[in-house]
Amino acid sequence: MLLLQFFIPKLAHSSYILAGDSTCAVIDPRRDVDIYLDAARSLDLEITHVIMTHLHADFVAGHMDLAELTGATIYAPRLGQCSFDHVSVGEGDEIVLEDMLLKVIDTPGHTPEHVSYIVVDTSRGNEPIGVFCGDTLFVGDVGRPDLFPGRADELARKLHSCLHEKLMRLPDFCEIYPLHAAGSLCGKAMAAKRRSTIGYERLYNAPLQIRDVEQFVPALTENMPSAPDHFGRSTVTNTRGPALVRTLPYPRPMSPRAFLEASKHEKAIVLDARTYEAFGAQHIPGAYSIDLDTNFPTFAGWILPPDRDILLVASTADDVDEAVTWLRRVGHDNTIAYLDGGMPAWARAGLQTGQVGQVSAIDLHRMLTTEPDTVVLDVRSTSEFEEGHIDRAVHIEVAQLRTRHGELDKDKKIVLVCRGGNRAMIAASLLKQRGFHNLTNLSGGMTGYSAAGFMKQH
Fold this sequence. Notes:
The chain is α/β, with parallel strands linked by helices. The strands form four sheets. Strands 1-2-3-4-5-6 form a six-stranded mixed sheet, with helices on one face. It contains 16 helices and 22 strands.
């Protein structure tokens, strides 16, 4: 038995190859599947199984592409009622892969259809060596059960039951192979460590210490992080089977004036993936700013409207490739063009640009004393805001500005604040689309403000 783990930062997603002597299974694959093909080829393995623990919310999976490219059989949860060709599995089913036996158990909670796969290496013994637990159990946390409207209480109770009555009954030495780690929004407080054991989690996983289900339910359903928009869309896409990557358009280079004309189409949006400082210096009016160096896929899935043609602004050809890959991973499949020559070419063409000013921590501190009408808008998460914020700051999470911008006065000077500056520029781009123009970004965000000694704890 050989186990390979593949980790994607930003989405904090782990997928796996489980291999025998000549064949292997890919568990919970990402959408760009070449990494599995290359790994299997290097080990002289045939990919025969593609195994899904559940119908993922935070990314579009690669099960359809792998099946087409390798002829592998897809195994997916029976309760998911998937519409693509697959073998449905549920409680009591078994999958044989050479000397390995995968025992299926239903583990609903994070999602209604979730299953886990207990692995027994029969060449060595009959005890479980590990469990692919998907988003049921993480290192230091458990899956959030609040993603399905009106079902949070029900799913939290199911999660509690399957954790304690199924997974925690596995031997202490049994390894856990979770789907996510710190950085994912599929849980509340995951550790950065990507693998663990049942025994260690039994001792030190905080939610597992809550044995009373009546205490467990509110702990897992109240004060949870906001869920991005694409979570619901990705589940639907994975259920019906995503479009094959080979069928998707790749953006073509477009001259500045052609880009301008294309941007006027009602179905088009402009996405600027450059650094937030570059966007502030000059950008195409009406563009969305999502810095490729930040959690680009999460905010792209969260902020960008679905089913729109994306016109991309990036700094380099490599950045175009990277942005397209990330966009596809969260279901934005229609990036049709990129600005040839980037913003320098746009400026040389004499076309209109927009700007967002930057202010240092020291200057903002002075402004708060000398300009009392200045509004400080903190766009971080609620938990971040509660840990510490600038006095008199208004708090609206960045994604909520799409609907809550009416709470702000367009005539006031607004200084946008996040942790480092990236989310504040996303916020600036959203507000500019809605007629706000007197906007400034706190350069370095709260990190810089704290380093300057100005941040007040609350």
